[in-house]
Amino acid sequence: DTGCFTYDNGFTATASCKSAITYIDGDAGVLMYRGYPIEQLAEHSSFLEVAYLLMNGELPTEQKFASFADDIAHHTMLHEAFKQFIGGFRHDAHPMAMLMGMLGSMASFYHNNHDYDDPEQRHLAAIRLIAKVPTIAAACYRYSMGWPLRFPRNNLEYVTRFLHMMFEVPSEPLQMNPVAAKALDLLFILHADHEQNASTSTVRMVGSTGANPYACIASGVAALWGPAHGGANEAVLKMLNEIGSPANVQNAIDKAKDKESGFRLMGFGHRVYKNFDPRAKIIREMTYKVLNELGVNDPLLDVAMKLEEAALKDDYFIQRKLYPNVDFYSGIIYKALKIPTDMFTVMFAIARTSGWVAHWLEQQADPEQKIGRPRQIYVGHDKRDYVAIDKR
Ligand code: SDX
Fold first, then answer.
1. 270 in catalytic set
2. Number of H helices, E strands in the chain
């Protein structure tokens, strides 16, 4: 409670805020949302119920959940003008670029008449963001495929509705596989929130200036995109494809140990977890089950398993407490669900929108909150006088 933390490499950090949303114990491998262990939520809850929990602090009664799900369902549509907006992107634009742009532009559709000092308006913005992010994500995918955009079906539950908007094409009825929806729902639960990670801290930093919620969430998407953060799931698949077979795993391990190479094992390591990422454990088990149930046999799973086995036995990784993180196996499941690689981080963003929104609500409701203003250690020049250009 001093608010000071010391990382393994001796770096110290001071807490950027107080929050009651998520608790992590990096050494013990503990993750809890509002006090509920991630393992229990993964087994018993749904993503939309977890989104309610993160936002409101309590699990909903049946009646409250029904009304929340109804609110979300009735805010999934996009303003028709979004079609012109999305039409301005190149057909091969990265979906994260499109998602960031579209979310930020929501400020021009829904912002100019909202007073975010009013808790009702804050709640409405939160509902709009959680409801529309899957519609926007699916629109980005369909635009890249040259397919017509799909309207959200309000009679479907959240994740099934998203898969329908992603993959339904007029020429044939979509075979909705319940295994796929259940697997994606679980991945969304596991990615929903994670305390003050880089993108959530960014959302809170932007929120601390009083910027509108759409600008805040768009800044979270920007931060998440980086390969050191949410972009890692896409980078893991690229790495596994480059390794190609279990026989090449040792070369990858050796390259990751050679600092000069600048190569890191994507999906390994974590700023906070110096033990197994509890989410990675759940996703690891889930990967076998989902691929089995879908009848998918992906050789990359053998490469991933061999890489994990070799790294966990290697002193370099053991000494640095580098374990698989949430991103190591998730891409193999997304691939089995026929989600294209460049949409993997978009999946992360859909899930994390619930966490980002919960943190924004918590921050905006705090009358004591101040503008974020980190300080620095100055390592530049001492004072010196200006020199005219002809004297330099
Ligand atoms: C996410 O913060 C969150 O909570 C994030 C997240 C969330 O839910 O929001 O959990 C999601 O972003 C997970 C992380 C996904 N990123 C990756 O998988 C990319 C690969 N991993 C890394 O680049 C790295 O591990 C980080 C970015 C995750 C952490 O980087 P740090 O803090 O620089 O790592 P560190 O200080 O713990 O490194 C200690 C040592 C260093 O070597 P030395 O200088 O001590 O000799 O371990 C080395 C690092 O070079 N190292 C790695 C490595 N990660 C760290 N070496 C090889 N492969 C790696 N993946």
1. yes
2. 17, 5
